[in-house]
Q: What sequence folds into this?
């Protein structure tokens, strides 16, 4: 089994550290950035299986970044982890995100990690690893 990788996009260092400790506990490789620009830069080098994304970031809204991710990297699973109320239907996020988890609760993230073995693999969904993703070319 390939090593799973998670990208945490969170500008609050305390929450970033908390999320990192969760992924450390599950022995999941992770990388943290504090801005959308740094997340995009990271995506140039490595495509994670999961992104944990805050909504209010110094250089933009995570909700807008979701549209970019969905268009360019459809195989990445996204957890929107934010203190902002988000109407999933109004924002047309169904099918674009794996989970909407309101801060400060970590329980939905724990459940998502615990159930990760039930996630369809990217290959099963799209035959879409970064090198062969039709939207990545």
A:
């Amino acid at each position: 089994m390939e090593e799973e990788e998670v990208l945490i996009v969170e500008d609050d260092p305390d929450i970033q550290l908390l999320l990192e400790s969760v992924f450390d506990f599950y022995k999941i490789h992770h990388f943290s950035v504090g801005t959308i620009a740094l997340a995009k830069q990271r995506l140039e080098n490595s495509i994670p299986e999961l992104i944990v994304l805050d909504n209010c970031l110094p250089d933009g809204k995570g909700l807008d970044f979701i549209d970019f991710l969905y268009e360019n990297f459809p195989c990445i699973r996204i957890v929107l982890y934010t203190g902002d109320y988000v109407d999933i239907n109004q924002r047309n996020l169904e099918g674009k995100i794996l989970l909407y988890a309101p801060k400060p609760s970590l329980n939905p993230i724990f459940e998502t990690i615990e159930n990760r073995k039930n996630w369809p693999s990217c290959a099963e969904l799209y035959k879409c690893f970064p090198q062969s993703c039709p939207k990545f070319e």
The beta strands are 5-9, 29-33, 50-53, 56-57, 60-61, 77-82, 99-102. The longest strand covers residues 77-82. Helices lie at 13-25, 36-43, 62-72, 107-114, 122-126. The domain at 5-126 is CATH 3.40.50.2300 (Rossmann fold).
